[in-house]
């Protein structure tokens, strides 16, 4: 179950309390995600830590689309055991005409929103987009290990941090072992 919670302040926190309660009561741990979760942004550290502990214990995951000024504190949440991913739910719609479903671009926006300055923080955006979202929905990690799904893209860059900053064009996109795009153009459906 994926709930989109835009409420902030007490209203949003009350909804979180109810979600934690119902998730526990119905034994839905690991099957509930709250997207956006704006009520958690900007909480004092002690309250964020307490609520994160409740979410982790209940098995409730979180996702963000990395809006400026309202991005979840992903690093802290993950340190506290909360599964937190990055997604894109608005693709040139009324919610955001700037959405393009490009997860590398979304990682760039997350890094900017969280004011990332060093490689470790920049790479957090990449990892949150490339791995954490898959974890939330029970998909295998996107890596190049034998037996992993052959889903990947190739870009020019020296390291993930540079790729997050530069958002280079995809030279090759492979899905299920088949090339679906080359040099930014779709070659197969």
From TrEMBL:
<protein>
    <recommendedName>
        <fullName>Amidohydrolase-related domain-containing protein</fullName>
    </recommendedName>
</protein>
<dbReference type="InterPro" id="IPR052349">
    <property type="entry name" value="Metallo-hydrolase_Enzymes"/>
</dbReference>
<feature type="domain" description="Amidohydrolase-related">
    <location>
        <begin position="72"/>
        <end position="166"/>
    </location>
</feature>
<dbReference type="InterPro" id="IPR006680">
    <property type="entry name" value="Amidohydro-rel"/>
</dbReference>
<dbReference type="InterPro" id="IPR032466">
    <property type="entry name" value="Metal_Hydrolase"/>
</dbReference>
<dbReference type="Pfam" id="PF01979">
    <property type="entry name" value="Amidohydro_1"/>
</dbReference>
């Amino acid at each position: 179950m994926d709930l989109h919670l835009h409420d902030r302040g007490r209203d949003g926190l009350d909804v979180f309390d109810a979600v934690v309660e119902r998730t526990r009561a119905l034994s839905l741990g690991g099957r509930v995600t709250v997207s956006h979760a704006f009520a958690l942004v900007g909480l004092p550290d002690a309250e964020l830590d307490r609520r994160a502990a409740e979410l982790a214990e209940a098995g409730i995951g979180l996702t963000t689309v990395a809006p400026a000024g309202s991005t979840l504190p992903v690093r802290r949440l993950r340190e506290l055991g909360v599964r937190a991913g990055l997604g894109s739910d608005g693709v040139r719609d009324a919610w955001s005409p700037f959405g393009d479903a490009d997860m590398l671009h979304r990682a760039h926006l997350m890094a900017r929103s969280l004011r990332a300055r060093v490689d470790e923080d920049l790479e957090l955006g990449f990892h949150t987009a490339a791995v954490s979202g898959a974890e939330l929905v029970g998909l295998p990690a996107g890596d190049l290990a034998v037996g992993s799904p052959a889903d990947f893209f190739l870009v020019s860059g020296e390291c993930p941090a540079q790729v997050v900053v530069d958002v280079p064009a995809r030279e090759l996109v492979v899905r299920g072992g088949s090339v679906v795009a080359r040099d930014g153009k779709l070659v197969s459906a």
